[in-house]
Write a structure and sequence with these properties.
The chain has about 280 residues and is an alpha/beta fold. It has one domain: Carbon-nitrogen hydrolase (Nitrilase/N-carbamoyl-D-aminoacid amidohydrolase, 4-Layer Sandwich). It is built from 6 helices and 16 strands. The strands form 4 sheets. A 6-stranded mixed β-sheet has the order 5-4-3-2-1-16. Strands 8-9-10-11-14-15 form a 6-stranded mixed β-sheet, covered by helices on one side. A two-stranded antiparallel ribbon has the order 6-7. A hairpin with a 5-residue loop joins strand 3 and strand 4. Helix 1 packs parallel to helix 3.
Length: about 280
């Protein structure tokens, strides 16, 4: 694979409904818009093909991977636009009756070069009675995935994973240049934590962080935060969305990764220690 150092990356921010065909069509148009603006890597949010309410409904509208219409459509779109596409996640039905929240990285030939199941599941009770139990519907993954791209290794993650910094440190120490964090972050937690968490992951790892998000209101009254971000290895925001669907584009210089890590080589400074509980 020929190494490239300069390219354009895109975040596609959407407001997905529970109508899969409509969601795929709208996201497809925005991918074409990003490609027309010169984007080589186009990243879509978590649950890009469907934001359904209720675990039974999610399972009913999931598909085995080989039959998923979202995967088929975006593979065709990668070929059409000659772009690499990160499908933030699709609901993939498993043999045990549950669902994997699965992210796919497609190359410009429509081939799957990386797939990642969300490891950390969002089981939380927020203020105001807002409650989530992803583990009732989803099986959490047990593998971190470092995919190979023309711009160097890319570490894959999804949404709630961003609160577990060791995952990102492992990616960086394994050679990642780019980390992707497709999300459907809640409005409540997004307002408080989204930007600071993502900037911290970039600063800690010296990686580019690309984080496309869902936005707006969805079935069941769920609200997602939007504010998709592209952040450089120094923690500077290169592009940020707002509250509505949009396409963000930023220029990426992969050489900035090594330059940043050369200034602050903290990835080489781990030391073993013991925890004193006295």
């Amino acid at each position: 694979m020929k190494k490239m150092t300069l390219f354009k990356a895109a975040c596609v921010q959407v407001n997905a409904s529970n109508d899969m065909d409509t969601n795929i069509a709208k996201a497809g148009d925005m991918v074409r818009e990003a490609a027309a603006q010169g984007a080589h890597l186009i990243c879509l949010p978590e649950n890009v093909a469907m934001m359904e309410f209720g675990g039974e409904n999610v399972i009913a509208k999931s598909y085995p991977q080989a039959e998923h219409p979202g995967l088929s459509a975006f593979r065709d779109l990668a070929v059409e636009t000659k772009s690499w596409i990160l499908i933030g996640s699709l609901a993939v039905r498993l043999e045990n009756g549950k669902v994997a929240n699965r992210c796919f990285l497609l190359n410009d030939q429509g081939e799957i070069v990386g797939q990642y199941d969300k490891i950390h599941l969002f089981d939380v009770d927020l203020a105001g009675g807002e409650s989530y139990r992803e583990s009732n519907t989803f099986d959490g993954g047990d593998r971190a995935v470092l995919a190979q791209t023309p711009w160097g290794p890319l570490g894959m993650s999804i949404c709630y994973d961003v609160r577990f910094p060791h995952l990102y440190r492992d990616y960086a120490q394994a050679g990642a240049n780019i980390i992707t964090v497709p999300a459907a972050f809640t409005k409540q937690t997004g307002e408080a934590h989204w930007k600071v968490l993502l900037r911290a992951r970039a600063i800690e790892t010296g990686c580019y962080v690309i984080a496309p998000g869902q936005c707006g209101e969805h079935k069941g009254g769920r609200q997602t935060y939007g504010h998709s971000l592209i952040i450089n290895p120094w923690g500077e925001v290169l592009a940020e969305g707002a509250d509505e669907p949009c396409v963000l584009i930023a220029d990426i210089d992969v050489d900035a990764v090594a330059a940043t890590r050369g200034k602050i080589p903290s990835l080489k400074h781990d030391r073993a220690y013991q925890l004193d509980r006295s």
